[in-house]
Known about the structure:
Number of domains: 1
Structural class: mainly alpha
Mean pLDDT: 91
Number of strands: 0
Number of helices: 13
Order of helices and strands: HHHHHHHHHHHHH
Amino acid sequence: MSQLISFLKLIRFGNLIIMLATLILARYCLNNYLLLSDLLNLKFLYLIITTLLTGAGGYIINDYYDVKLDLVNKPKKVIVGSSISRRMAMLLHLWFSAGAIMFGMLISIKVAMLITICVFLLWLYSVSFKKQFLIGNIVVAAMSAFVIFILKIYDYNTPSSLILLYSAFAFCISLLREIIKDSEDIKGDSRFDCKTLPIVLGIKKTKKTLITFSIFLILLLSATIVYANNIMSFEQSGTSDFYKIFLLLFTIIPLIVMIYLIRKAEEKSDFSRLSLLTKLIMLSGILSMIFLRF
């Protein structure tokens, strides 16, 4: 039982559930011509499997190369080399990554090629990019956006405006969270010659950068509220108002609160709370898709 729990933690089971929900909601809610039964399409099931396997493989290889860092930053959460051997972790990564590419090929050659690129980028992130200035943050943010953007590759009938809007949101909020996590881990990362943004610029300038990104995201969401009726087709009259209110209450206002908390943040625990808040804002953004169909 303990091995199973360790395995689920290793593959970030909770994050994979969020990825699954994102794919299903985006597939159904961003395409107003689909029926619920269309979600049972075999190729869409393959898309879900290939995406989740790619994500799980990425989490595993990241933990594999991060053992020394994690022993400093989060010693109680280290799994590789403790609950699960390094050899088994590497085998799991290879199996999951190969499986992701195989299921991608069952969809199309283009999807398989994109998944292969993602697997390679996630490996580079774990080996090198994570320790470099902003590159690792951008790669992770791009992977978050790709979970939504791949639906356009899968089905060209998916409205481009909606795909781009939600992909941009996923990219921005993920980039924010990654920089916040680097700020949280600054003491441990500095011991291993990492060149993350907080280490290179310092916490004070990093906080200004985070505030700038937060303001940009607020402007993006505000523009979405203003122009929602022009870029989206709502299934039911009046639903657009609920959509706008939801975005205001559960994304924009929390982002304003986050700016205040960023200004006050000093300790590791402060950045831990900010990381959790960004995850909740991301979840709210995903859930907002529901109002496009119901």
